[in-house]
Amino acid sequence: MIYLDNSATTFPKPDAVYDFMTNFYRKHGVNPGRSGFDAAIETEEVIFNTRKLLTDLFNGGGDPNRLTFSHNATDSLNLILQGLSEKGDHVVTTMLEHNSVLRPLYCMQQQGIIDVTYVPFDNAGYVDPDDIKKAIRPNTKFVVCTHSSNVIGTIQPLSEIGKICKGAGVIFVVDGSQGAGAVNVDMVASNIDVYIFTGHKCLMGPTGIGGSYVREGINIRHTRYGGTGVRSAYPAHLDEYPYRLETGTLNLLGIAGLNAGVKWITEKGIENLHKQELILWDKLRLALQNIEGITTYCAVDANNQNPVLSFNIKGFEAGDVGMMLDVDYDIACRTGLQCAPKVHEKIGTIDMHGTVRLSLGPFSTESDVNAAIEAVKEISAIKN
Question: What per-residue confidence (pLDDT) applies to 232?
Fold first, then answer.
């Protein structure tokens, strides 16, 4: 299989991730923070070390305990967005967002809790920070924006947006599902108040683990309650971090894999991995744009870009192209709306049932890209 669906989840994972997960769970598959025996204490040390690795990676600028774990980015986005919102609040977001942002906001809007403004993006795939500024109202509680689009791969101007939010006294929340581990993040410099991540994409961890970093001074209202392993006689859920956003037993195996994944990308160098992927992406982009009948979307150049390319072939449904790539060429990709319907509304593919998306990762090779180019060329030649 030629795997070009890394925006869904990176595959394969580094051997170091598989090995550490197996060895860790065989020796430390016990419940941390509940008991005082050696294995439990050593397990807690790995968890705290992972909190610190991610806090440093994102430059959260403070306490590693404010780095909390959840099931995935969608889970954390629900905790954060619902925990921030109060009746009468206004929220600014963008048309680039994934349903993990859109659906919680829609639900709260339908319930009459919040009002939402959706800021569009330009023809190259970027949000204009001035449009964010114009959308902010006196009752705007927060701005939530994707770090990078999962459909078109454009990396958004977070520093400029963060500066606007800080000046307006508005909380800035970033969905880093497609950014964490792909490009460098500096929460302090970019004035990001909350950064949400998932482990199974560019952080090279397994599925089922994600989380968020919440900077000092941001109040997230409780929406879940339960066991924490400490101060059990206290009737209310604890306010302090990490317990404020964590309930019950953590996903130890997921955290172990995330620990190893972060160490791997740090050792390899995020910038080095990104550069390698973009060289291949640019070759793919240019080749597809020179094939008759191919339309690519917002793929202008490699600046402020992740290695994600969406396209369609004239005369074909996106789903049919994906099936041919799979069955006839053994190429794995993603087709459809990619859980981001407003992107497709804006680029004009909503009635075409979306696009074909090819997304590269650290283990993608030039031969993979060459095979994809030839496959798309042959499919296009059928009707063009």
Answer: 79
**Are residues 263 and 273 both part of a single domain?**
no
What Cα–Cα distance (Å) separates residue 140 from each residue in 101, 102, 169, 219, 336?
17, 17, 9, 15, 33
For the chain, give the number of residues.
384
Which pLDDT score, from 0 to 100, does residue 32 have? 79
Domain boundary among 267, 298, 323: 267
Could you tell me what percent of the chain has a pLDDT over 90? 88
Element (H, E) at 313: strand 308-313
Residue identified by tokens 């991540």 is 197
pLDDT at 29: 84
pTM over 0.85: yes
Report the pLDDT value the prediction gives residue 318, as an integer from 0 to 100. Answer: 97
Of the chain, the end-to-end C-alpha distance in Å amounts to 27
Instruction: Count how many domains the chain has.
Output: 2
Which segments of the chain does DSSP mark as H helices, in order?
15-28, 38-58, 73-84, 99-110, 129-135, 158-168, 252-268, 270-289, 318-329, 341-347, 366-383
Asked whether residue 188 falls in the same domain as residue 170, the answer is: yes
Q: How far is CA 76 from the centre of its chain?
A: 11
The C-alpha atoms of residue 33 and residue 65 are separated, in whole angstroms, by: 14
Residue 280, CA distances (Å) to 284, 364, 368 in order: 6, 8, 9
For the four alpha carbons of 252, 173, 189 and 202, in that order, the dihedral sign comes to positive
Three-class secondary structure of residue 233 per DSSP: coil
Under-70 pLDDT residues of the chain = 33-34
Q: Please check whether residues 45 and 108 belong to one and the same domain.
A: yes
Write down the pLDDT at residue 226: 86
- Interval 96-114: pLDDT, tens: 999 999 999 999 999 999 9
Check if the beta carbon of residue 118 is closer than 8 Å to that of residue 93: yes
Of 247, 267, 287, the position where a domain reaches its end is: 267
pLDDT at residue 34, as a whole number: 67
User: In terms of domains, do 158 and 92 share one?
Assistant: yes
For residues 258 and 376, membership in a common domain is answered with no
Report d(CA 18, CA 35) in Å as an integer: 27
Pick from 56, 93, 59, 90: which is nearest to 77 by CA? Answer: 93
337 with 214, same domain: the answer is no
The whole-number pLDDT of residue 254 equals 97
Residue 293's domain spans which residues? 2-11+269-383
